[in-house]
Amino acid sequence: MSKAIAEMFIHALAQMSDAERAETLAHVFLLSAKMPPTKTRAHRTAPLNISREQIEKEIAVDGNISKAAQRLGCSRRTLQNHMRKHKIPPGAPGIPPTKV
Question: How far apart are CA 33 and CA 36, in angstroms?
Answer without folding.
Answer: 8
